[in-house]
Amino acid sequence: MKNIAILGLGVVGRGTADLLEANKALIAERVGEPVNIKYILDLRDFPGTPYEKKVVHDFSVIENDPEVELVAETMGGSHPAYDYSLAALKAGKCVVTSNKEVVANFGEELLAAAKENGVSYAFEASVGGGIPIVRPLVTDFIANKIVEISGILNGTTNYILTEMKTKGKSYADALKEAQAKGYAEKDPTADVEGIDTCRKICILTALATGILPEAAKVRTIGISKIDGADVKLLEKKKYAVKLLGRMKMQDGKPCPIVAPFVCGADSPLSHVDDVFNGITVCGNTLGQTMFYGRGAGADPTASAVANDILSILKDGKTSFAPTFNKAADGDVIASENFVCRRYVRTNMAMSEVEKVLGKVVDLGGAYITEKAFAEGEFDALAGMFDSALRVL
User: Fold this and answer.
1) Are residues 11 and 61 in the same domain?
2) Which among 163, 297, 323, 366 could bridge 345 via Cys, Cβ 3.0 to 4.6 Å?
3) Are residues 125 and 45 in the same domain?
């Protein structure tokens, strides 16, 4: 029998426990022996539930039990999630997490601790919910140099933008509906201001390049200031606005950014709607590959957590062992140098616009540049226009 512990019986923790219990027979067959949830760490007691007798309130009970082979951290936040994860790794226990904040801030240290103690630290559920993206980046692109990643990495913002596009809702009304449906938190800042997406693109960048950017240094622009007039105009021209986390290799180094981008109908990301996520990965030999699916919610995220648990229990304690390092000075191209084309909306005549931006495509009251501008270069020009967005 394989014994595990779950830290936190919230939405993801409960979903993981329920999945492991519901598929107990199938899991035992595939792993080769039963998987038993021996402990659940939580402040609450959950009387009357199937987990009532498994609950403990002291992490040291789990840390000091040699029968526990693996710990699933589903608590959220940096502390005590990081502290418990590190302690578990040092105790020779594998750790699986859905916590993108901890991975983005402490991933290098936790992976090093896992290697030092002969165990794995796995985090498939930290990016893309139930979409397999972390392990493919580690294993399936091993023969390719990854030159670009672009992803819709937050279901909340994608739902809001979809409502604005398809139903003409204002940002405020779409956000209110997202909150009513449980897609957005009461305080939606981490989602709508791009913080969540930033953590995720930092993790993907680290897996793709071996360098973990510091999230605080990545230019991060959310969707709260998007004008519905732009969404409406672009929708008529078969374009869609999406909040993207992007990383491009520029001058041989990763350059990450988070911002709303205009996506043309020829981009698969323009057709990813509602709460779904989509991620494109471009390898220098393979070209572009797309990953698509449910990017949030209890079931998809729990599925990713459970898959990590079972893969490690089946394949061995050291079966997942990526490595990356925190970015040092000069390792990452600053977001201010990220280069892309631009969309602008203005009452200026096309001839006047082209004096400033060079040749443009006329959308009728708005234009898309043929020239690609660096962030810093365009910053000085953006104030001339009623609105401006980046173009994928």
Assistant:
1) yes
2) 366
3) yes
The pLDDT profile of the chain, 392 residues, written as one tens digit per residue, is 999 999 999 999 999 999 999 999 999 999 999 999 999 999 999 999 999 999 999 999 999 999 999 999 999 899 999 999 999 999 999 999 999 999 999 999 999 999 999 999 999 999 998 899 999 999 999 999 999 999 999 999 999 999 999 999 999 999 999 999 888 999 999 999 999 999 999 999 999 999 999 999 999 999 999 999 999 999 999 999 999 999 999 999 999 999 999 999 999 999 999 999 999 999 999 999 999 998 877 899 999 999 999 999 999 999 999 999 999 999 999 999 999 999 999 999 999 999 999 999 999 999 999 999 999 999 999 999 999 999 99
Give the residue numbers marked as catalytic.
200
Element (H, E) at 151: strand 146-152
CA atoms within a 13 Å half-sphere pointing along the CA-CB vector of 193: 8
Same domain, 17 and 84: yes
Provide CB contacts within 8 A for 250, sequence distance 6+: 333, 337, 338, 339
| Size of the chain, expressed as the number of residues it contains | 392
Number of folded domains that form the chain: 2
CA 255 and chain centroid, separation? 17
302 and 391 housed in the same domain: no
Residue-wise over 89-126: b if at least 16 C-beta within 10 A, else e?
bebebbbbbbbbbbbbbbbbbbbebbbebebbbbbbbb
First to last CA, the chain: 50
Q: Judge whether 77 lies within some domain.
A: yes
Are residue 81 and residue 120 in the same domain, yes or no? yes
DSSP state of 208: H
**Radius of gyration, alpha carbons of the chain:** 22
CA atoms of 70 and 2, how far apart (whole Å): 9
Domain that holds residue 389: 338-392
One-letter amino acid of 47: P
Q: What's the pTM? A: 0.96
Pairing of strands 325-326, 211-212: parallel
The reply to whether 191 falls in a domain is no
Q: Are strands 35-41 and 339-345 parallel, antiparallel or unpaired?
A: unpaired
